[in-house]
Design a protein that fits this description.
Order of helices and strands: HHHHHHHHHHHHHHHHHHHH
Family: Belongs to the DedA family.
Largest sheet: none
Structural class: mainly alpha
Protein name: VTT domain-containing protein
Radius of gyration: 26 Å
Organism: Micromonospora gifhornensis
Keywords: Cell membrane, Membrane, Transmembrane, Transmembrane helix
Oligomer: single chain
Domain VTT: 43-167
């Protein structure tokens, strides 16, 4: 029996169960995701999609299903919050908490304090984060009157979107059966890609000159140590002859080449994730839906928008914004991260454009070059402009960036220039590529702040004053 047939039979058997039993079991699963940390191994989206599908078949009623799932998720989060409030200090004092380390607990507390309710709302849309954040918020001492409204907003939007998605997909019964298993693997692949992006960004933040850092590690290898011992003086004389300016240019060139290889790796990861997600199975359905709604006037306007919002135009805009910021603040230094994070912020976008052009030729994957570059460019612009802006301005900038990404992706789908799977892969590629540098810059900022902070003695007095 194939996996699709097994899922098909499971859904058929569930339909014959009493509706009250389905409500109870689904509610327990959704509540347990956060209440007993089941969500670390079994995220609740599959249950909500199944509830939506059963609402489509008439087994469940949509209104009561939404209400029960919202109440279940809210109760689960309240239990998790209470557990964090009650057992958080005991957990920190335990042997496991000591292994985590006080500095990590302090960083977690700082994250919750910094993001506050916005972090609670956002975490509801991230599979593993929504399992841990209610406990973390309770342990950090966040008032429940502040936690509850943000959490309720996240629960309502997340449950509503998931259940309605399952109901709208009800017309494709066999497609849903096949996608349920494939989507789980794709989610795991995307989580692994997210972890890789964060780790790569943190490494780049700690090693802002990656080529030099890799060369130092390579110098510890036995063959290189032998060459250095035998011809070290010759290498020294050649480096003196080369000069610092040419050495910097060579280092930056090698760094850009390294970024190109990293971009290829990220593109390959996005290809695997989207290919195994099963999204390509509905490309034809989505394309036909858009094609049935095309009108001559709308096509003309959409074509104009696609032609104006090109990647090259946005890359040039990023270059201008980065140059103005660098001229005002002059914060960059002579290393790769400082260059690509300030005056050379357009360089990663050029590298990404080259990679996606290769992808468009079929040698890496099938991507929409415009969607990938537009996503990365708009995210880079929002990041550059929001680093020193107040929170409402930063939210407006990022909202505009998201609207632009959705707009250009939807326009290309409307015109039939891209498939749904290709658009999703391109957007993920552009967002992941920008996230690498955002994480790297944040890591470097924290490292610099820690290095400039005054050290304190065991009694709290400044060591610098002794």
């Amino acid at each position: 029996m194939t996996r699709g047939a097994g899922v098909h039979e499971l859904l058929s058997s569930v339909q014959h169960l009493p509706s009250w039993l389905i409500y109870v079991v689904a509610a327990l699963v959704v509540a347990a995701e956060t209440a007993v940390i089941v969500g670390l191994v079994a995220p609740g989206e599959a249950t909500l999609l199944l509830v939506g599908f059963l609402a489509y078949t008439g087994t469940l009623r949509l209104g009561p299903a939404l209400l029960v799932m919202i109440v279940a998720a809210t109760v689960g989060d309240a239990v998790a919050f209470r557990a964090g409030r009650r057992y958080g200090p005991r957990l920190r004092a335990s042997r496991w908490g000591a292994r985590v380390g006080p500095h990590r607990w302090a960083r977690a507390d700082a994250m919750v304090a910094r993001m506050g309710g916005r972090g609670v709302f956002t975490a509801r849309w991230v599979a593993f984060a929504r399992t841990l954040v209610p406990r973390l918020a309770g342990a950090a001492g966040m008032p429940y009157r502040r936690f509850a409204p943000w959490n309720l907003a996240g629960v309502i939007t997340w449950v509503g979107a998931s259940v309605l998605a399952g109901r709208l997909a009800g017309e494709s019964y066999h497609t849903v059966s096949r996608l349920l298993g494939q989507a789980t693997g794709a989610v795991l692949a995307l989580v692994a890609a997210l972890v890789a992006v964060v780790l790569a960004g943190r490494w780049l933040g700690r090693n802002p000159d990656p080529v030099r850092a890799l060369l130092k590690r390579a110098a510890r290898l036995p063959p290189v140590r032998w060459l250095s011992a035998r011809y070290g003086l010759l290498f020294f004389l050649l480096s003196m002859r080369f000069g610092p300016t040419w050495a910097l240019l060579a280092n930056l060139t090698a760094g850009v080449g390294l970024l190109f290889l990293v971009a290829l790796a990220v593109a390959g990861t996005m290809r695997v994730a989207v290919r195994h997600s099963g999204l390509a199975l509905v490309d034809g359905v989505i394309g036909g839906w858009f094609a049935a709604r095309r009108t001559p006037d709308a096509v003309e306007v959409t074509q104009l928008a696609v032609s104006v919002l090109r990647g090259s135009v946005l890359i040039a805009l990023v270059a201008v914004v980065a140059a103005v910021q660098a001229w005002r603040h002059r914060p960059w230094q002579a290393d790769l991260l400082s260059v690509v994070g300030t005056i050379g912020a357009f360089v990663p976008l050029v590298v990404l454009a080259l990679v996606t052009e290769l992808a468009a030729d079929g040698r890496v994957a099938q991507f929409s070059t415009q969607s990938a570059v537009v996503t990365a460019s708009l995210c880079m612009l929002a990041w550059l402009l929001s680093r020193e802006a107040r929170w409402p301005v930063a939210v407006a900038l990022w909202t505009t960036a998201v609207a632009g990404v959705v707009g250009i992706g939807g326009a290309r789908l409307y015109l039939g220039l891209s498939t749904a799977s290709g658009t999703v892969a391109a957007v993920l590629l552009g967002a992941a590529w920008t996230a690498v540098f955002m994480v790297a810059w944040a890591t470097r900022d924290r490292a610099l702040a820690a290095g400039n902070a005054p050290r304190r003695g065991p009694r709290g007095d400044h060591l610098a004053d002794r």
